[in-house]
Amino acid sequence: MDTLVALPVSGDSFLLRRDNYNILVDGGYSSRMLIAALSKPRLAISHLHIVVCTHADKDHAGGLTDLLDKSSISVGEFWLPGAWSESLPELLKNPDLVVNALIAEFDNFSPQDNPTLNQDHRSESHARKSIVEESHEAQRKSEHEHEGPEQQDVDEFESHMHALIASERRKFERDSRSNDDQLSPEQQVGNAGLAWLKKQTESLELNELNDADSAKAFGRGRKLLRQQARKNHMDQNWTAFGLELIDTAERIRKIAVQAIRHSVKVRWFDFGEFAKTKQASGGEPDLLVPLNAVEVVVPPPPTEMMMYMLRLTPVNEECLVFLSPGPTWRHRGVVFTGDSPLGHGSGYRLSLLDWPTERAQWVVATAPHHGSESNAVAYEHLEAMTNVELWLRSGGSSKHPGPTFRRLPQVQRGCTHCPRLGLKRGIAEVQLSDQFKGPSFRVKPHDCSC
């Protein structure tokens, strides 16, 4: 029996067991919690055929950073965002360089940007200015609408910043994001996935000393940014945003180093390449395919002049979305939405999915962004494509889920816990029978009372 399991961890982590494959989509916040969940007698996972990281946000990627180094679990393939290649060469070789660049970018962040920057840097300066002015406006609105800083809606601030940065990223168009068309088949093999990562570290020894030096670089960056925040009286949301960028850089590096160290096959899925044509491709037919990405053999090259702030922000709009359609039309599909709003444009009202219409007419879907109201439009987008019989939710804070998820009929929703009620996390396991029987919980911690 195929099953979908929402793991009892902080953040998002789902295990799909289908056709004798174990597929992990995201790892939550903590490797310790993830390893403990996968090792429970009910699951007893020793090998994961595919591990997907939908984006670098802490509650999705955090649990993957030490999965291999701190457990006996083995991994066959890592499926990673192609956008990581914008930062990985420098992150692997010289994380100090990336940290220093981030600190410098934040140091320049004020509504009065230096007008003497030369012509080559004007587009970057414009990006800085618009981001800073918009962030200050978001903060003023937040403080006006709530009684105090402790009640500010962090989700709203994050969503606003992600939308703004997604807009800025789109201004840095690449003539050709992918190198695939420019390389011979032999060159592609030599630059694919794991081989590409290993090329970035040819002159390095990825040993404990290298790990310690890397950790020291990121720790120093956090310390400097906190000092800068106190000196410049940065608001708490903006400071937290900067610290999270440093954390994101460290997560991306650690996952890549694990792949190199344990010789795990790496496959790249690029949202930017998809955005050019709105046609998804790649993955494994019948098992797992992208809905908003293109699989590329060679990761896209970095874009010149793009700030590290733009490169490293895990923009929700670019979060990878995957479908497991099942081997025949009779089989129930599974959609992993991650933190994606499944749309783009103003309010994400325009659908951004390349749906394979001939398959997966009935699906179980993971609730977008823990059921956050900022992603409410995602329910409409997916339900316009297929019949969603069950929304499975995990992670989130005491403010999750939002009213859209809570308005769903109780039989159409499930979760690992109800954060608003403070219930204990537990495994939520759904049996994926064929479409004539309907999905059913094999195990659930409680009836969803969100």
UniProtKB/TrEMBL annotation:
| Superkingdom of the organism of origin | Bacteria
> Residue ranges of the Metallo-beta-lactamase domain?
8-80
Pfam families (UniProt xref) = Lactamase_B (PF00753)
Q: Where is this region: Disordered?
A: 110-155, 169-189
**Residue ranges with Basic and acidic residues bias:** 119-149, 169-180
Q: Which InterPro entries match?
A: Competence_DNA_uptake, Metallo-B-lactamas, RibonucZ/Hydroxyglut_hydro
Name assigned to this protein: MBL fold metallo-hydrolase
Q: Which organism is it from?
A: Pseudomonas pergaminensis
